[in-house]
Amino acid sequence: MRFLLIEDNARLAGAVSDGLRLDGHVVDVAPDLSTADEFMKTGDYDLILLDIMLPDGDGRSFLKAHRERQDDTPVIVLTARSEVSDRVGMLDLGADDYLMKPFDFSELEARCRAVLRRRAGAADNRRRFGNLSFDPLAGTLQVADRRIRLRNRELRLLEVLLAAPGRIHSKARLADRLFAYDEDVSENAIEVYVARLRKHLAGADVTIETVRGLGYRLVGP
């Protein structure tokens, strides 16, 4: 998954982003609303974690504009406000959930999983295609009776391909989904991760097909 964390407290932002990256996610950190707006223009995110009190404005204005653009990317608000009216107001503006500061990271992880499940309309985290069963949040892949543990970027690559079987993904799009803004990446790196994932899919009735000059797509039965 790719997350956008909008938080001006550097210590908290560092702790949250480090934890999410250890879970295998790609995280872009915006310390203010203007940086977040720039990220949103070029990035494609699975989930936004939004602080309310920011140096250049109120996170609620970002949330309102986000929903007025008909952007359905889930948003979890991170807030120090304890009043019920504040929390209700954020939910009415379009927040999918909120978490009171200070919070335990394990609770944040659980709320992220729950919001992403709701967005997918699923009762659990698993995705199935052919004889492949994939749990992106646990980081596990099962091919027939064989259980495979994926490394972080192999996992994220499969997640992107499996979200839209048959769709062609360019190397540039895959790089955007697998790497944060502050990471250098070459097309060669994408080829390496595709090759690794193909090895894991040996024995599956699902394959990664190269579309010459365009990119890659996942095809199955």
Could you please describe the fold and organization of this structure?
With 221 residues, the chain is α/β, with parallel strands linked by helices. Strand 4 (53-54) and strand 5 form a beta hairpin. The protein folds into two domains: 2-120, Rossmann fold; 127-219, Winged helix-like DNA-binding domain superfamily/Winged helix DNA-binding domain (Arc Repressor Mutant, subunit A, Orthogonal Bundle). Helix content is 42%, strand content 24%. The model has no long low-confidence stretch (mean pLDDT 88). It is built from eight helices and 13 strands. The strands form four sheets. The protein has a five-stranded parallel sheet, with helices on both faces.
Q: Mind telling me the CATH class of the largest domain? A: Alpha Beta
Number of domains: 2
| Low-confidence regions | none
CATH architecture verdict of the largest domain: 3-Layer(aba) Sandwich
- Let me know the largest β-sheet: 5 strands, parallel
Task: Provide the β-strand percentage band.
Answer: 15-25%
Overall pLDDT level: 88
User: Number of DSSP strands?
Assistant: 13
Q: What would the CATH topology of the largest domain be? A: Rossmann fold
Relevant CATH superfamily of the largest domain: Response regulator
What is the share of helical residues? 40-55%
Listing every helix as H and every strand as E from the N terminus to the C terminus, the arrangement reads: EHEHEEEHEHEHEEEEHHHEE
SS content category: alpha/beta
Rounded Rg: 18 Å
Q: How many helices in DSSP terms? A: 8
User: Span between N and C termini?
Assistant: 26 Å
Strand line-up in the sheet with most strands: 2-1-3-6-7
Shape: elongated
